[in-house]
Each structure stands twice: as structure tokens, then as C-alpha cells.
């Protein structure tokens, strides 16, 4: 039988009418409630459930959520039970002065300002060396060298003749003649002193009344002979070096400071030093110099510490550890109560005075300590805002915290981007983004952020190119270096599904070790930033895993781990030919949780044998080998 066009059109209209009636009846309660502005409560996991009152979902038992609640795209609302299961903990934003402990390494060396070069001041021959090997300690005035010099004999003769003329002309009436004789005598005497003779040696020549062709070179300082350049019998010219003497009572400690530590180091700061040769014994010194140039090979800056060594126990070349403490004020400024309002010598940090003056050692003008970056003690009301380190999520160039909203009917958390100051004493100084007294999440922040993604809200950690995937040549080395992380992750997922706590903990920590093998150097800037975000999440989940004492706690840590691994596979895929399947369990942790696994047979890591096959297959993530085989 042939059906006409009119019949077909009437049939289609009738079908649409029937479906419309069905949909209208199904949605009528909701529309009626909305039209009367009545409250509507729905299940986040089963959106077809809409009730006029709060209560559990008849399908999964999850607490219903009020429609329109927590409308901010960066807010997450949960029940008290969910908050407890997620182990959310908070702490107040407070004002506090914090301190930073810096530990540096270095070694002992000579004080270059206290080293003396013993050299010949007149030509001659070394007839005798009284110090005939290095390492001998000498005192100021000790004999070092007997030098034969004909020129010295001539100079002594000139002195004796000048003295005789001075004596002969002492009774002359001519002032010019007397002054001339005195000037000649003074010149002859000064010449011998400039050649290295002491005042006593010159007096002895005058008393003796005869010239000698030998000169005794004595030590001008107390110290240790660290270099002997010549041997007896050798001839020398003016300026030829014979010995080098170093003062061992005062030494330098040369420390290596990394870039990130420089903000804590100031000229004049006190430093505690411990040598490996004397464990438990502390030596104290002052920062006397900070190298203005960074060593691009070691990425460190040399920091010099002046230290006293009066008992001679420290030896140049010894390795040391140094501890330096800095108090942090507003905007990360470094406080030093000892130097507050003082004046310090820019060459000798041990010279500190209460007012502007001159250095007692070098005569330089003293400088205000504030010019070296120090600030004094501050009023407690002006202390910096600080939060615990665990409250801050680092996402590349951005940092964020989750703040508990006060006065909310249900626990509600809002994501805030913050500006970080220094990190010290287990705390972060926050320059903006929060107010004093607000409660920030210190445990579970990453879990909140992951849950926001599951509910379709805006994740604070994935605002930048959330759906972007990098598969170019520049990611090849990076992707291959992720093998250890993926291997540890899949081992953890499998072990948790088998209720094997010991193996799961071991495999998760093995995945943590794989972080050290990652090679992100060739990534583009956006890809590198994404990796830094993911790495921060991995580190947080690994920290939780390290503290887990049972399989229940480890599964909580794995939920965070799995959420990050999903984003990692979305962003970069994984090495190898195996396909990863994304599975979602709506029952896990009330809010539901997803994970990656190999194969289509569901192996639930959150419940194990209790509900091993609970979940639904969702996404598919092919491996690098599969993509390459398809010409990608």
C-alpha cells in the first residue's frame, strides 16, 4: 500500500506531540518548583534526581545539593561527611615574624688581607735561611734571612759619614749648613729602613760605628710560613720573593650560596660554622663579602665569612658547614636586631658603632646598616601575613589557596590566586590574596581542586589551556622520561585493586622516584608550565602517600595521584603502545573519582575486592607508539 505525503507529515506531528507531552510531564515537578521559586535539590552524580527537600540520593545515597548554591565558578560546596572523608583541614591566616635557616657548605682558606710577602729590598746573596722549610710558625721580629749585599755596605757607610758631618757641624753658626747636615743624615737613615732594616738595627750600626755587608731580614708579622721560594746561596734582585707568611689567627670561610638563598644573606650577618674535623663545636664569624658575580657553572655565589682562629684549630682547606638565620619582616625584608640603627664599616664588619664615625682599622666612613638591606625589629601589628606551606598550591608561575567561606550552611571553599613572598619556618609569606583571620585549607586543597573538575567547575590549577595536548617532536624526550612515573602509577592501581597495601605503597613511592628522571628541557613554554602544575600535584600526593599508615589512607592519596595522572595523559599522552582507559566510580569518596588503567575489565583501586568492578568506562588514551603508527 502506498502512503501519501500527507499521512507521513501527520504521523511526524503526532510523534512530536506525544514526546512533548512525555517530556513535559517528566519535567513538570521541576518547572513547577522553579516557577514558584521553591528550593530544588539535585544529585551531582544523577542529575535526573530532583527533590524539593534536602536528603540522600535514592540511587547512590549521596547528599543532594541545593540548586544555585555556591554559584561562584571557583567555589566548591560539600557536606560535613564529605569534608570528613576528604580529610579537609584548615588554619587561620595570621601575622607573624618568621625565621629562615640557611645551611651552606664551603671550606677554610687564608685571609688574603693578612698574608705578607717577604722579599729582598736590595740586590744580594742569600747566605743563610733561618727558616728552611714551610709550615714553621714565626713571630714578629724572628730572624728569617741573612743577606750579603755590597750595596748595603755602601749605604751604611753613607749613614756613618752623614752622622759624623752632623756632629761636626753642630756648633756652626750657619743655619743652612746645620740644616743640610741634618737632612743628609735623616735621608741616609730612612734609606736603610726602607731597605728592610729595623730602627734597632740602624741604631746598632751607628753605635758600632762600622759598616757591615750583611743584613738580617726579620719577620714583620706573626704567622705561618706557607711558601719558601728560594734556597741558600741564590742571588736575588730587588723585589725577589723569598717567603710568604700567613696569619693563622684570622681566617676566611668561603661558602657557596645558591641563587634562591641570596635573599637571606646580608653583609655583617652572624654565621655559625662547624668543621667536619670538630663535630659539635661551633665557630662564629661575620659575612664580610658577597661576590657580585654568579658562577654560571655551579649556579652559586661565593660568600666570605671572617672568623677568628686564635687557638689554631681550623686549618685552611678544611670542609665546613655553615648555618645562617634570617628573621623575615614585611615584604620579605631581612631583620637583624643586633644591627638595628647601627653603623658598620663596609670593609670590616666587626666594626659596628652607634653613630656615624670612622673605622678603627681602615679609617673608612661607617655606613648605616639599612644600606645593606637590614631592618630593625618591627611592631607585631606590622608582621607579614603567613600561611602554612601545605596550604599553597604552586602551578608554574601562579600560586593559589582554597579559603573556607564563613557563614555558609555547608562547608564551602573558594579558590584564590595569591602572590607569594619568601618561604620560611614552614610558612609562606603572602603579599596579597587573603586577609588576616581567614581560614585556608592546609590539607585536601588539591582534592578540592580535582573535585571541581569532576563537577564541571573551573579548576584553579588548570585555567591555562586545560584541554590542550602536546604531541610534537619537542615532547618526545619528555614523554619517554615519564615511563617510570607511569609504571609506578599502574603498579599502584593494580595493587590497590588487589588490596595489597605493602605493594601499593612501594609502587607509589617508586613512581615518586621517577620524578628525578623527567627531562622537560625541550618543552615549549606553555607545555613546561603545564608540567610544573602537574608536578606540584604529584608531589603533594606523594607526600600524602608517605604519611599513609593503612590502605584506606593510601587510597585517599591515590585519588589525588590518579587525578593528576589523568591530566598528564590528557596533556602529553604516555610512552609505549598500550592504551589507557579512564574509569569513573560515582561511589568513591561520595563525590566520585576517576583513574587510569590498562584493559576494559574494571579493576577499582578505591574499593578493591569489596566492589572490584564498580565503575564505568569513559575516556581512551592511546600510547605514543599507537599515535606514531597512525601518522600523528
Give a verbal description of the structure.
The protein has 632 residues and is an alpha+beta fold. The chain folds into five domains: 5-85, no CATH class; 89-96 and 384-462, conserved putative lor/sdh protein from methanococcus maripaludis s2 fold, CATH 2.40.420.20; 100-109 and 248-380, Elongation Factor Tu (Ef-tu), domain 3 (Beta Barrel), CATH 2.40.30.170; 112-246, OB fold (Dihydrolipoamide Acetyltransferase, E2P), CATH 2.40.50.100; 473-629, no CATH class. It contains twelve helices and 34 strands. Strands 4, 5, 6, 26, 27, 28, 29, 30 and 31 form a nine-stranded antiparallel beta sheet that branches. The longest helix has 31 residues, at 5-35. Mean pLDDT is 81; it is low at 1-37, 68-72, 463-467 and 626-632.
Quick overview:
The chain has 632 residues and is α+β, with helices and mostly antiparallel strands.
